[in-house]
Amino acid sequence: MSDQIRLAVLGCGTIVRGEHLPAILRHPQVRLAALADASEERAAKLVRNASLECRVCTDYRSIWGDADAVLNALPNHLHASVTLEAIEAGVHVLCEKPLAIRSEDARACGNAAQKRGLVLAVGMNRRFQHNYELLKAVLEEGALGALQDYDWQMGGPFDWNSASGFYFSRAQAGGGVLLDYGVHLLDSLVAWFGPVSELACEDDDWGSGIEANVRLSLKHDGPYGLISGSVRLSRTYALNNRLLVRGTEACAELPVETPDSIVLHRSLHGMAVNETLAFSTEKHVSGTSFDRQLENFIRSIRGIERPRIDAAQAAYVLEVIERCYAKRTRLPEPWSEVPAGIEVGA
Known about the structure:
It is a single chain. The protein has about 350 residues and is of the alpha/beta class. The protein has helices at about 15-25, 40-50, 80-90, 105-115, 130-140, 170-175, 175-195, 280-285, 290-300, 310-325, and strands at about 5-10, 30-35, 55, 70, 90-95, 120-125, 145-155, 195-205, 215-220, 225-235, 240-245, 250-255, 260-270, 270-280, 330. It is globular.
């Protein structure tokens, strides 16, 4: 391997254009080797607009000999199969979430990478946000007292600029908002509070397999004992868009619009006060969560670190989501129910 790692990007959608590609171009140890996309024109346009010097192709298999690593940012249903192909070709992989749409496929990817001695990292950028690290430190310090519960809400009208539209296909996406937003939230919750021991799930899937609204009740059995929490997700209406963790001494709030800080709500001499916590060192301030995610991937390839999110962790979160889907019940929607005694079509 040369001094610079040759990285090919598979998929040129919004997340690549807006987050991954800028991080790649900023990294001094990475050379962009190729862009592969089903639409050659979309990839070529990205090359022109960003003044890139790299190959453009529609057949991702043609880049195996020219890349040390790939970013797999294809639609969900292609994550596992293409990741396995890359590993078979001897290429390290950073795969966008979810690693697969089935937990067994995620585990197969992990086993293949381990057998070949290759790095397989999963793109959960929220785990590289400062608020994740700050809450982890607050919990470990016991600053909240005895933990009571948490409430996490994420939602708003769906406005993602999707080129392929795969989000609305059960076969291609694997699920709806729970597998999209939810995989991020569950990944962080499990990392903070431990495995999910009990769960209940309500959603508004009427049979299509693509839920737009979900409500979860969870119990964790981990380093802080038994912790209960609720998660609400929506693609149709705005929610509070924050995590609130309640303790006997204080509460921690993580608003979605401030990923680099958290707010502690506590009492000081009988007065309610709010404290904002943020890292002050240059080491923590620089870069975005996608920069830090890429840095972890590169350092893992060089044997300096391990991937922060590996296949085993990703597979466990997918197992939790599968348990949710298996046990789900209808989310109450009284506005769509027909009152008893009224005949439909009468």
